[in-house]
Amino acid sequence: MNQEKMGLFISNLRKxxxxxQKELANMLGIMDTSVSKxxxxxxxxxxxxxxxxxxIFHVTVQELLNGERQFKKKEININHHSKVLEVSNLSKSxxxxxxxxxxxxxxxxxxxxxxxxxxxxGKTTLIKTILKLYKADSGKIKICGxxxxxxxxxxxxxxxxxxxxxxxxxxxxGKKNLQITALMNDIKDKEYIDEMVKxxxxxxxxxxxxxxxxxxxxxxxxxxxxxxxxxxxLILDEPTNGLDPRGIKELRSMLKKISTEQNMxxxxxxxxxxxVENICDRVIIIDQGNIISDFGIxxxxxxxxxxxxxxxxxTESFESGEQDENSEFSKK
Length: 332
Ligand SMILES: Nc1ncnc2c1ncn2[C@@H]1O[C@H](COP(=O)(O)OP(=O)(O)OP(=O)(O)O)[C@@H](O)[C@H]1O
Ligand SMILES: [Mg+2]
Prior knowledge:
332 residues, six-stranded mixed β-sheet, four-stranded antiparallel β-sheet, globular
């Protein structure tokens, strides 16, 4: 690591984003003198700030350490820091059983967040509560600033989702299904519908009735259906269910592409840890209705810890009631 080169790189990234040292320091919750020292190569940010900086500037921690970009520059949006999802103090029970326990979660524009956890941990319940398919006991949920209690319609207009087996009109063609969604959401751009059909690779079967589709084809249609609204937030509950290996690979590149092109945020629950590692920038582990870990993928890669390793240590120590405050990825 060349501290001076890294400092210069941070300074350039900050200017590219039209931020002052003070503004960057405020975002990180530190003194502006610290930013100034990093930029002059006097000090180097520690790993938690490197992770934060990598999220703010859409670069990897490794690129920050190298002081240069290895990968193609992502389109940087100065509104990157607008909050797309804010979940605060959310709790949810079914009968007497508490399923979600005081969940706090914020997603920013362009974030791709993986939600992992054992069966029955509460992932689907969290997703359904965010979309108000379930009523929360307490807490607040905002999507793009709209409170789902007061402005549900506006909040949902910013959201696309696929949860469990997606609802489709089986007796209608794929195309007709998409047209209905477009109509209901007042979307007039017909070319965009065709673009999305191509994007998900369904163009040769889009005029077939959905009942003739395979599971993977239905998943692809559901994705096109979720995307035609051009949502700011895409929520996917185990989207790779039923997809073949090629489908999984294609979905991965589709999600990365659409997130970069449209600066879309994606919340994706999955049991396939390698997928999460591949697609997401950030991972949240949920167990027995609690968020037990929330960390950047780059942070894990930097420390050479696999997601599988983290999953097991985190869930095992949580379930055995051990406190984990001193671990490298302690509960936030
Ligand atoms: N409609 C419901 N009524 C009662 N209990 C429910 C309901 N839906 C879910 N639960 C319970 O809530 C808990 C969390 O379930 P949830 O489906 O959210 O888990 P999950 O993390 O999505 O699991 P999986 O990985 O198996 O999909 C489970 O104990 C489940 O039995
Ligand atoms: Mg589930």
